[in-house]
User: What shape does this take?
Amino acid sequence: MFLKNARLIGLVVIILAILIIAPAGAEFGTNWVGSFYNTEDLSGPIVDTGTYPNGINETWGTGSPVDDGAARVMTAVNPDGFSVRFVSTQTFVEGTYDFFLTFEGGLRLYIDGSLVVDQFGANPLTTVTYQQFISAGNHQLIVEYVDPAAPDTVGAIVQVQWFVAGTGNPGPTPTSVPVATAEVHTVRGLAVRTGPYLGASLITVARPGNSYPVSALNRSEGIFTWYLITVGDQTGWASGRYLTVRDEGVVIPEQITVFDQIDGAPDVGVTAVTRANMNLRVRPSVRTSRLLVIPWGAEMPLIGRTVQGGRDFWYQVRYEGVVGWIYAPYVTVRGPIDAVPIR
Assistant: This one.
């Protein structure tokens, strides 16, 4: 009991020390997405994805990491011996920035695809600072973090923040670093969606003649690679069929999406009734695998939906214990549709 209490007190002291280190006015950024691996080198399959709307400021201790956006413990991720790649696009005003990176384990920081901090490995609780001039506009940040499996008394801690050290360029104009970008071709407007599927909800439209930052890719639809792009203040997925992607040597990370995390969604008291024989598909797209055929007149729980043009587009249902997606126009809904979450 004494040892357990001592470790708890030590962790509290460490957290307070981190808060004291944090400079006034520091920014953590917004809308980070973390892809988790049960390895220490970001290899193998992605086992879970978490969202971090208010930045990377995590003290997970010796338990499994937590998805801040969904407020859930990611039990599929090892409590120790895991790695994670956080990706975001942040908007900066022109100036010189100091980055404060606090972590137990190892950490890398990429700015616009350029590796600027490399402390990957097994380190005790460490704070690293880095300074760089950043031009005005959107810039991609990637943080790679590892929590080694070696026993420790602190557990996983990672915090990334920055603040303006000065305005203007204090020295020679820095050499530009490569950024992955995409441009629309062939079509007048390209749908940007909540997921890498034809049936995912529409967020906005990307237009030709513009260059959009690319932060991730996904190949799960099977035919075309989809890319996570930023259009104004919106970030979503667009089909690579109509994109010219220039990676400039940047490694574009592969990322799973919310659609990979909701197959166990709960019932909400709403029922779907088919008005035809319908293909139940893995994801909301005719390009994804068919799980089975649902007969005409079948009734089943309706647990999710996508929306396009103000109308329901695809429905997520649970039929005989199998969760998948069916095309909404051929389905009758019984119950309050507003209770069904939009994906």
Notes: The chain has a mean pLDDT of 85. The two ends are 46 Å apart (CA to CA). Residues 181-258 form a domain with the SH3 type barrels. fold (CATH 2.30.30.40).
